[in-house]
């Protein structure tokens, strides 16, 4: 009898998060104070983050203990299963062995819960009463709402307006777990009002929603800001995914040749990929593919530069691949991938040639997602579907070359609340966007004038 899903026992769940920074090929450039242009100190981040998360953000230790209180909540869904995609392999006629890590098993339906629980815990421990955050398609907003409810915090979520209307059931999840959800840009903040004055029908962006959430947080003594991707401590919390995958593959005697994840801000890609990067540095033959939409091609058409993480320029300057902080992508259904920037750590790894960025338009992505659902059964979120498309291409390459490679990807979330997107595809109403080079160039003109060397 073949084994289709590989399980770890709860007692075997990783007890530490992996910090890639000490193992980076070159030292990451520091975030900068936008006013002075000098490296940020911990005290400058204290108004928006608790000190424990700031310490993790700046840590140079390889391993950081996961507190038992967080482990206890993780055990509700972790370890998550690793599936062998036998049916997909047969359908594609590929000699490749395909595995997918099913993060849709979490209560919120995505990988985002891994860092939501951690961030809520550390804020609660330092006496914070309320968190403010942004969300694109709603995976992060619903995950943080769950984390806040489980740990006794209030939560306000600024949800990108186009997704607020596209994803009504994720709004319902956020409200079910007791949080407030607001369409962004809104009249609640000065940042939101300034956008609406110029563009009353703005669809919103993650950069705008971040501005609103940060303004909310700094305006109240009882509130901190929480971010679901991009920053180092978020990448850190997600590495429990890749650590589990490593142990699960060992159980069946396999090693990965290709690791794939969709990439918006970088967290689910980092979560599955980072724990395997020391193996590549030691000589293992592993490729890491980060997949993004062609309508928001941060890694594939952006530039590596210092830029703001938000539209209103309230955040520190981060060294990252960016399309410009006021870049407004089309309202594609993969709302979690509509971010102008990229994790500084993922960005640096791409710059060093370790990560391969790849972009696809949404119709081929949904075609792959529909096929995956009909062959393997699980319906991917639109974000996850980008990874699925890359898996198809890599598996067919293996078929053409006659190579028995092992392909592993992060099934970062289910698509149960994204069915309107599937209807749009099935009805022939999806439009493929390829963002014009001249518009990207115009946005990039507004980057801060700071030399990254």
The end-to-end distance, rounded to whole angstroms, is: 56 Å
CATH class group of the domain at 5-10 and 67-109 and 233-444 = Alpha Beta
Question: What are the segments in which pLDDT stays under 50 over at least 5 consecutive residues?
Answer: none
User: Based on CA inertia axes, which overall geometry fits?
Assistant: globular
**Mean pLDDT across residues:** 94
Task: Enumerate how many helices there are, as a single number.
Answer: 20
| Main sheet summary | 7 strands, mixed
Q: Regarding quaternary structure, how should these chains be classified?
A: single chain
Strand content: 15-25%
Radius of gyration, in angstroms, nearest whole number:
20 Å
Category by helix and strand content = alpha/beta
Question: What proportion of the residues is helical, as a percent range?
Answer: 40-55%
Looking at the overall shape, the CATH architecture of the domain at 5-10 and 67-109 and 233-444 is 3-Layer(aba) Sandwich
Work out the number of β strands: 15
CATH topology of the domain at 5-10 and 67-109 and 233-444: Rossmann fold
Strand order of the largest sheet: 1-4-5-15-10-11-14
Tell me what you see in this structure.
The chain is an alpha/beta fold. It has a domain of 261 residues: 3-Layer(aba) Sandwich (Rossmann fold), CATH 3.40.50.1100. Helix content is 40%, strand content 16%. The radius of gyration is 20 Å and the shape is globular. The relative contact order is 0.15.
Short account of what is shown:
The protein is of the alpha/beta class and 453 residues long.
